[in-house]
Structure formats: C-alpha cells, structure tokens
Amino acid sequence: MANKDELVKAARNPWWQGAAAVAAIALVLTFALGGFKQAKSVTKPLPQYQAGHRYQGGAMAATPLRAWVARYKPGGQVDAFNQGKLYLVLQVEIENRTPRSFSGFGYPLKDLILVSKGGTPVPAQSLMMSDDHTIVADLHPRMKQRVDLVWDLPRNYVYSPQETFGVFARDYKAKAYLNDEGAWLQGKPAAKYRIAVSDLRDRMVAP
User: Are 172 and 183 in contact (CB under 8 A)?
Assistant: First the structure.
C-alpha cells in the first residue's frame, strides 16, 4: 500500500478538480497502483470490451451502451453564455446486485470512470437518469436502470472519436472494518471499454 507522502503527491495531480472527495481517495489509491495503464508483460492484461457488453461482478452489473460529446448536458440546451463548454456523456445500463439500495453518488461514480490518455482514472461529475434527466438518487436491488454519466470537459480538452472507459471490481467483505461491519470494497481495475464517441455538438437539444 502507498504511504501518506505518495498519496498526498498523487492527490495534487487530479485531472479535473470537480471530482468529489470521496471518489478522489479511491482514485488516488488506484493511481498509486498504476491505474489503468497498459499492463506489463508479466501481468495479465485487463479484458477490453465494446459497447453492449455486460460486465457483471460484485456489487454492480454495467452495460455501457453509447457515448457522445455535446455542448449541453442531457436534457438541457446550449448555454448561450458559455459557448465553449463541452460535455462527454456515457450512457450505461446499471443493475444493483446487492440486497440493498445504494446511492448514485457512490458506486457508479466511483466504479465507472473515464481513462485519461496517461491511464489516470477520471470520475464523472454527475449521474443522471436517461429518461427524465434527473439526478440519480438511489439504485434499487435487481432493477436495471439506464443512466448517463456526465464529464464536464476542460476547454482545452480534445476528445477522441473513441474513448476508453474503465470498470473497477467491488467485492463484499464480511469484516471490512475494525468494528467487524461488512462492506462492498472497491478493488483493482477489472475491465476496459473502448467506445466510439458521437459528435453531437451541432444539436440544440438532448438526444
């Protein structure tokens, strides 16, 4: 495990500063372990999938469906006062595989990430329901729900016609803490997705 100095150093290099603190801790740990960088020859490489493949493991099953870049968030219109703004959106079908509901601000935002060109995991800034574009509250057990992960892109960001997204493993530990309470703990990177990104910058309304 990385020591405190290494974590502090990594924490000072976030790709974007809008990530929630709780997500940042998990990402720093992953960055210290090499993140989603290309695996070395002595290490088994991560499986890589395309849109439509269902990843099932631990607390959550996820099926990335499509991705696009636009000048608006889902459900919105172009911001006349911020013409240079861009958003990257990944639409995913998520199923909560645990016995209890969990918050949309928890596992989905921590476990489904954008992989930067250098291999650093980058969390989305928001998670929205695909049907009515509301912010996701709770994801209930055994219910498949379609959601949109939204990244607020920097002005100088040049998106690729294909982007890489990553999925973390998360397993249940019966005694995860000193008080012997159980929890679903995030593990190492489990899989990568290489997904085509549609250019919707010329549209005025949401898909």
Answer: yes
Closest by CA to 140, choosing from 98, 112, 101, 196, is 101
Q: Under 8 Å CB-to-CB from 25, ≥6 apart: which residues? A: none
Q: How far is CA 169 from CA 16, 92, 133, 152, 201, in A?
A: 23, 17, 27, 25, 33
* Domains of the chain and any CATH numbers: 4-199 (2.60.40.1240)
Kindly give the confidence (pLDDT) of every residue in the chain, 207 residues in length, as a single tens digit, with 9 standing for 90 and above: 444 444 334 434 444 344 333 344 344 444 434 567 654 434 678 899 999 999 987 888 999 999 999 988 998 877 666 677 889 999 999 998 888 887 777 788 999 999 988 888 899 999 999 999 999 888 888 889 999 999 998 777 777 899 999 999 887 777 666 666 677 787 888 899 999 999 998 887 767
Nearest to 88 by CA among 175, 29, 161: 161
CA end-to-end distance (rounded Å), the chain: 43
